[in-house]
Amino acid sequence: xxxxxxxxxxxxxxxxxxLDQRELPAREVVxxxxxxxxxxxxxxTLAIRGAPAIGVGAAIGLAxxxxxxxxxxxxxxxxxxxxxxxxxxxxxxxxxxxxxxxxRMLACAHSTGDDRLLDALRAEATAIADEDAVMCRRxxxxxxxxxxxxxxxxxxxxxGALATSGIGTALAPVYVALERGMHVHVYASETRPLRQGARxxxxxxxxxxxQVTIIPDSAAAALMSAGEVELVIVGADRIARNGDTANKIxxxxxxxxxxxHGIPFHVAAPWSTIDAxxxxxxxxxxxxxxxxxxxxxxxxxxxxxxxxxxxxxxLVTSFITDRGIHEARGAAGPELFTS
Length: 339
Ligand code: MRU
Known about the structure:
With 339 residues, the chain is an alpha/beta fold. The chain has 9 helices and 14 strands. The strands form 3 sheets. A 7-stranded mixed sheet has the order 6-5-4-7-10-13-14. It has a 4-stranded mixed sheet with strand order 11-8-9-12, covered by helices on one side. 5-S-methyl-1-O-phosphono-5-thio-D-ribulose binds next to helix 2 and strand 9.
């Protein structure tokens, strides 16, 4: 089976190639994007989504868009770079991987002369993608130690291969378990309003041969109460220095339910998702999205539609990162992640 490539270079190396996640699971549509406006639009409308994939996609997209718009001229590329990077970084505020990747691209440009600039940007974007795939694999190899054959695991939203350039974050331990002949049963909560759990997590797990059951978000507490969930693993869009974690709206409710039922609650993320510059969750900007994502609402009714919530570190059992498993619950102080 072909690995999922949610973001990559196009075969001719001139464009950002994406698997359009708005179309899944009905259709597998691949698009090549090269204009900064269309790349920004793809991120804003969730054609590319998931914190690591947004960072990788924006990095490859930036290198491709700058090469096209500058017609290969290094001086022009340098003039265009800050505006293009700011436009992409501004598309989604919560996932820190996006600004992290844009800052890496700017730092790369800063240390390179005009004559080598386009090649250097291309190489840096490729490195960001390759490193992300390696971090995912390491998360999987660390996280698999928390799983056992036949285990029933709940996840929320999609933190799988579609959300990264590798085997995912929250789903990486499940994939490594599968490689090792273990069978894990995943409950994918639907993830209202855009249904990333039902559309994307269930699609990629079923494709890989993992047993997956979709539940409405509102059924998670009942499922836990019935003794059907042994472990929760979710991804993250930004982890503050003290461990407070922003992830898809509904994550916080799952964490509260898990604590109520004595179920371990793990957050899996690459180191690039840790924002040591933000002391705690109060400093995390939560993206709010359009009212029409909730479908038709009666005239006169207001809509509150945050894309993410912040789970306090006190509800997290551990963080599974590419650097290992970091105990959180009880041990957390203000300086859990200092660098
Ligand atoms: O709005 P989305 O679909 O981009 O939200 C994605 C999530 O919340 C993921 O759990 C998170 O980005 C981690 S992806 C490895």
